[in-house]
Amino acid sequence: MNNSLISKLKAFAKKIKQNLFVLYLSYKDPRTPWYAKLLAMLIVAYAFSPIDLIPDFIPVLGYLDDLIIVPLGISLALKLIPPHVIEVNKEAAEKLKQSGKPKNWFVGILFIIIWIIIAAWVCKIIIHHI
């Protein structure tokens, strides 16, 4: 791979990570409108979840959420948050980022439940057709 492309991808990943922490702080900020808080909370919960809706071991589809859904969600949420709130939280996000990514086990458990329901439904269909 081209070194220029690799450095651009690293910069893009760093910017996404920075923006996730900005969203994390912004949805807790009282100056953020409720609809922006809701979207930011959903995006942050999904991104910080230790389990993806589409597991990474599924070829191609497993990485779609990481490559498309999360960046688009971040972009949309940032557009809904007032610029002055984003600027204040960018500084605080840099400090928070150094302490590590928080885990969201609630969303992880929710995804496990969804996959169990899907597996049970598929088993029911298979058993019904046997």
Description:
- With 130 residues, this protein is an all-alpha fold.
- It has one domain (3-129).
- It has five helices and no strands.
- The protein has helices at residues 3-26, 34-48, 61-80, 83-99, 105-129.
- It is globular and about 60 Å long.
- The N and C termini lie far apart (49 Å).
Which key terms come to mind for this protein?
130 residues; mainly alpha; 78% helix; globular
Helix content: over 70%
Spans of at least 5 consecutive residues whose pLDDT stays below 50 are: none
How big is the Rg?
Answer: 18 Å
How many strands appear in the DSSP assignment? Answer: 0
Proportion of β residues?
under 5%
Q: What's the domain count?
A: 1
Provide a concise account of the structure shown.
The chain is mainly alpha-helical and 130 residues long. It has 5 helices and no strands.
Secondary structure elements and pairings:
Elements (H helix, E strand, L loop, with lengths): L2 H24 L7 H15 L12 H20 L2 H17 L5 H25 L1
